[in-house]
Write a structure and sequence with these properties.
The complex is a heterodimer of chains A (410) and B (245). Chain A is α+β, with helices and mostly antiparallel strands and 410 residues long. Helix content of chain A is 56%, strand content 18%. The longest helix of chain B is centred in the last third of the chain and has 16 residues. The chains are: A alpha+beta (410), B alpha/beta (245).
Chain lengths: 410, 245
């Protein structure tokens, strides 16, 4: 008996019991669709996180102060956290540094006309901020070095904030009241969205010097240098990232006179953040893979169950086939191929449902989905393997029937 | 008619026992018989006489415990399952009491079935349908080829089964109560069809308990308690040339 005939017989057998075949396949369909959709969702989440983080600017090193350090402070700059001059020192003394940006932040109430918004994040930065952080200005322009030098009272609005304050009107050239001071709006940023828990569109961007002067003045500033919240360093050669981090660490330890075991600052990179996120999504994905795998096994048991019923129901047919010359192997192949065909068709339908479902999820929901081609192969071959594994036992039962008993079966 | 007829069935001391030791049952007890090519023979006997056991061995569905069975010149007493399957496929055509057609499958596909398992590839695939059509025409079902069993009467279903038995051009046809499920009229039609095949030279062994059916044959072998009791020759059926009924 050749393979075409085997497949033809199996196909006919499946076609004769359409409803039952479909119900049998349901377990496999759900299993395969679940595998594809779950991997698509977790892939989508991972790539969304990764693209958000990279969109902050590539090859970026973040340096932030530790606030946990206590005890007596000695030396001119000890215990002050990060200061403005640290940034200057890094730029001048550490090789492989392409740019250094400094940020200081606070929150203030912002008013424009009748609109008043409280607790708006104010970000003081240097003029190269859009370059370092890979952000774009939608209209107007970012403030300039001259603004930074002269502590000019100018502001750039996040896109969402501009919308809230001015609606559809053009904010450029308007005045906003930030805290106790009036600032001129010189630009509006392009939408950036949420990155982690920070809404980049709901912020106000000011020159760092302006923030330090009017909003976060330090009484020690004259002696200690101005405190900053974050220092951003971009490296020119990402391969030497680790060397650069080591050198910055060394430099800051010397400047702050702290030991390597108890530094008063933390250095993180994009890679750190991505790795953390990836390990979280990987755990999530593993869990889902187990769930999907179990549903595939349950689907396989469903196939075995139906095949056993089918063998019993068709005992006379088996007897007849044996009497006209079918060998045990012919019978085994017939039922095995039926189980395989059921699971492979189920697998194909599952792939359609899975890919379609992922697409609908991505289009309708807030979740981003990315269908991995490897997950399609994985799901499909798992389905086929399940069919072969769970189809073998019933097929073997059928093959071992005695023709006389089978023909006599009622 | 061919006067030097070859031997199709030759059994010597054919014995079949079931079970072991004291609980063993002798179903067939040293049966020796011979059937020539072109003969039409009936095997009769009450239930428990061993006629089903004999039929199963003659039909190569099982093997004897001892003794020898030579079918068409080939000793088939000790063949394994796979070899027996091949013998059944090429040398034997079955007709069952309950027809045993594949449900929801056309008459044509039912007739083709034995060819699917033909390892000798006597007929190429593209000839299968043509051959099956010829068989169905020969049994008078040329206009029912695409009908499924549930759309056919009992007599028609049995004709499909006969066409299926003929398609591999077997050396003998074994019919197990071929008219058992039919009314007397349909039963007579089937017997006439078998007679026609017999006249064309087919070797036919009919297992039956119905004397009316046995009357159609040339020789009736009566079994009792596992051995041959009597053999009756129906003189009126012997040596007839072409008494087409």
């Amino acid at each position: 008996m050749n393979i075409t005939e085997v497949l033809r017989i199996s196909w006919e057998a499946i076609g004769k019991n359409k409803v039952r075949s479909l119900l049998t396949m349901l377990g496999i369909i759900i299993g395969v669709a679940a595998v594809i959709m779950m991997i698509a969702v977790s892939n989508g989440t991972a790539s969304a996180i990764a693209s958000q983080i990279t969109s902050l600017g590539s090859n970026l090193i973040f340096i932030s102060p530790n606030f946990t350090r206590n005890g007596p402070q000695t030396g001119a700059e000890a215990g002050t956290g990060l200061v403005f001059t640290d940034a200057a020192a890094i730029e001048q003394q550490v090789p492989n540094v392409a740019g250094v940006s400094v940020e200081q932040g606070t929150t203030e109430t912002v008013k424009a006309g009748a609109v008043s918004l409280s607790s708006i994040n104010i970000l003081g930065s240097l003029p190269d901020f859009p370059t370092v952080r890979d952000m774009k200005v939608a209209s107007g322009s970012y403030f300039t070095q001259s603004d930074q030098d002269h502590k000019t009272k100018v502001a750039v609005l996040g896109s969402g904030l501009a919308q809230q304050l001015f609606g559809t009107a053009d904010p450029i050239g308007q005045t906003v009241q930030v805290g106790n001071f009036y600032l001129d709006v010189v630009g509006v940023m392009a939408p950036k969205g949420m990155v982690g828990d920070v809404d980049y569109d709901a912020r106000l961007y000011l020159p760092l010097s302006t923030v330090l002067q009017y909003y976060t003045p330090s009484q020690f500033a004259r002696f200690l240098g101005q405190r900053v919240r974050t220092i951003y360093v971009t490296v020119s050669d990402p391969k030497k990232m680790n060397d650069t981090i080591d050198q910055i660490t060394l430099l800051l330890e010397q400047r702050h006179k702290v030991s390597a075991t108890a530094p008063d600052f933390t250095i993180t990179t994009q890679q750190n953040i991505i790795t953390t996120q990836e390990s979280t999504t990987a755990a999530f994905r593993n869990l889902l893979a187990w769930v999907a795998g179990i549903s595939l096994i349950v689907g396989g048991i469903g196939i075995m169950n139906i095949m056993l019923v089918s063998v019993t129901e068709r005992t006379r047919e088996i007897g007849l086939r044996q009497s006209v010359g079918a060998t045990p192997n012919d019978i085994r192949w017939q039922f095995l191929s039926e189980a395989l065909l059921l699971s492979v068709i189920g697998g194909l339908i599952g792939i359609l449902v899975g890919v379609g479902g992922s697409w609908i999820f991505g289009a309708v929901g807030t979740m981003k989905t990315v269908v991995a081609p490897s997950s399609i192969f994985l799901a499909f071959f798992s389905a086929a393997a399940v069919g072969a594994f769970f189809g073998y036992y019933p097929a073997n039962q059928a093959a071992q029937l005695d023709p006389i008993d089978a023909l006599r079966h009622e | 008619m061919n006067t030097t007829r070859s031997t199709v069935i030759a059994t010597r001391e054919l014995t079949k026992t079931y079970g072991m030791g004291e609980a063993s049952v002798i179903a067939l007890d040293h049966v020796s018989l011979e059937v020539k090519s072109g003969e039409m023979v009936a095997i009769m006997g009450p239930s428990g006489s061993g006629k089903s056991t004999l039929m199963n061995i003659l039909g190569c569905l099982s093997t004897p415990t001892s003794g020898e069975y030579v079918l068409d010149g080939e000793d088939v007493s000790n063949l394994d399952k796979i070899q027996l399957a091949a013998i059944r496929n090429t040398k034997i055509g079955y007709i069952f009491q309950s027809y045993n057609l594949l449900p929801r499958t056309t008459a044509l596909r039912n007739v083709i079935l034995p060819l699917v398992y033909d390892r000798t590839r006597k007929h190429p695939r593209e000839k299968w349908e043509e051959l099956a059509e010829q068989m169905l025409e020969a049994v008078g079902l040329g206009d029912r080829m695409d009908h499924q069993p549930q759309e056919l009467s009992g007599g028609q279903q049995q004709r499909v089964a006969i066409a299926r038995a003929l398609i591999t051009d077997p050396v003998m046809i074994i019919a197990d109560e071929p008219t058992g499920n039919l009314d007397s009229h349909s039963g007579e039609e089937i017997m006439k069809l078998l007679l026609k095949l017999h006249d064309q030279g087919a070797t036919i062994v009919i297992v039956t308990h119905d004397p009316v059916v046995a009357q159609y044959t040339e020789r009736v072998i009566h079994l009792r308690d596992g051995h041959i009791d009597t053999v009756v020759h129906n003189a009126k059926n012997l040596h007839k040339e072409s008494t087409a009924i």
